[in-house]
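FORM 7B - TANDEM STRUCTURE REPORT

SECTION 1: FIRST PROTEIN
SEQUENCE AND TOKENS:
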Amino acid sequence: MPENDLKIDPTTAEGEAIARLFRDCKNIEDGDGGWNGGDIVGLLCRWFTDLGINPDGPIYQADAIQPQVSSPDANPDTIANLLAALPDFTLQSIPVGDEGFFYAHYDEPSFDDDHASEDEATLVIFPYASDARVRVALAALRRAGYTATAYEADPRGRTIHVHAAVVYALPDNASTSDRADHLLHKAGFARADTPRKAYVPSYTTPAPVPWRTDWVQIDVISLPSTGRDDREETTRAIFATLTRAGWSVDGRGTETLHTTPPPAGPAPKPAE
């Protein structure tokens, strides 16, 4: 019996499907042993369809773990309608100085962007908003599945860059660091690990505290031009968010926190 180097089991449903695809490809093989590209594309599309995969659908449909949320398109009208539905947010510029006023337009790529990406993106500008108001907007956008990143270095005001994305649930065995990071991200806080990347007051990646089991440390950092008061306000807001979610929080100064998750039991009140 001839030997083979198969890495699949043709007796399983998956192995049989792969074997069938190979046989179909061989059946349309040209006389010189080549495979016609157009025929192969059509064959593959039918093969995927037979397996329940939509060739025109999103890439994550074949993942073992499906996302919790998939965002709509990141066009300015969709983003503006989502934010305008929130309390105290408005597209009306009168009265002047309303911190809930914002406007949105297509985001123009910068030199730092990946120009190979064709993803649609929107820029949201808040001429008068506080850090707290921007966090509310970030949290709403992230709940809807978007990637939303805040920047302050814009003469027009505070800005949020928005891209379409998907949101996955944390695995059951997620570490305390990952759980804390996930909670703060959903609440609209920015994360950065160096001050030069902290365009708004940001928390650092939660790091284990060596001498406290299951506790993590979070520092709040910012660009040197950002005032200490702004960092301290963000620290207090993070403290409140963690506490509402049932975490124990220990202040280690005005801009550093230690925190640990609640013990297993009834679900805590969700963070606002």
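SECTION 2: SECOND PROTEIN
SEQUENCE AND TOKENS:
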Amino acid sequence: MQPSTTVAAIELRISISETEPLIWRQLVLPESSTVAELHEAIQCAFGWKNSHLYALAGHNKSGKKRLIFALDDGDGPAGAEVAANVRLLELFDPAAVGLSDLEYEYDFGDSWTHEIEVVGQAVLQKPAITCVAGAMRGPVEDSGGVQGYANVVRVVGTPGHPEHREAVEWLEFVTQEGISKFDPGAFDMAAINRQLELLARRLWPAETTEADIEFVLGPILWFLNEANPDGLPLTTAGYLKPVVVKRAMADLEWTEPWQGSVSTESHAAPVRVVRERLQEWKLLRKSKDKLLLTPAGRKLVNKPAMLWHYIADRLASPGHPGVQIGTQLKVHWELTGSYPPMGLRDEVIQLALHEHGLRTVAGADIPLDWARGLRIDVHQSFLCLRLWNTKKWGTDENELSPAGINFLLDVQSRWGD
């Protein structure tokens, strides 16, 4: 008899029709997964960008015709079902090994059709998604379907081709990588499984404990508790006094041996950034020669769970549309592990600002250095939290902790769809 902690799973072989050589992945995921979760797994496993519509169509295990879409607003064809409401067990019999009659289509323009074959039953130790086999790099998004992608591969692999340079420039723009890194025959199962692990942690988040909350909010709670009830002393210039700065750096384990003695805000960026953010978030305020708790700060200082939601709300609704766009991109990049190359992040933010109709007061395009400043500003807000499995300052873009994922999911949920 299986231990109660195991999860019944199904193993599926998913192949992109008509590709030569065949592009395929073999995935194991909980049999209770929904079609929407299968879609997310396919996107990760093949390297798709989740930027187009999809559908699952065919006949289920009992022979009933099914048409399943992501849309839940009634815009799909008559009789279409919502992907999030249909579970794999309704469609596939894990014991019925063989090619199913259901196909997954992604991007109705390029029409990437994925055939789904049931390999068999499986068991997982926890809700997870793993890739156990496969072949070839996933196709490039918006490359024109099977024939279009095959042509791209052929042209970029033929230096003497008259369209070679144009194809290389297009490929580098779309993939945001140099042509030297493009290998259509590459299959990096370890990299795929890292993405699938992150996806599973998003789909089935772990429970957040009181200790998790206090760890994530550690720097914020330190400042609020130190200011409670009599406030923190300030210099005549309005900065925290050296004794407070040194205590913060030591207590929060922000001091590195090579830094030596750090006693002023000008040399202790973590202290300055957190102090400024807590003022912006209306948890602390300056009054003469002290930094005091605001009414909100007094209310939340001993209520970490309520403070968690308060900070999530402030990040989700920063009060400026540009900062909100930057925050949405940051959260998406963190949760999906899909950061653009460092050199392109400011351009991505700049493009997003323009797409949302934001311009300068004079009506001009947002300058790139403005986008860079916005990225840094958003970045620093997230550094005020311990979203990663470390207390060190500045160690973002590493692996998010389970509690860090839950916090970002909380922020993301406040934007709705």
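SECTION 3: OBSERVATIONS ON SECOND PROTEIN
Residues 199 and 336 are 7 Å apart (CA to CA).
The mean pLDDT is 92.

SECTION 4: SIGNATURE
Preparer initials: ____
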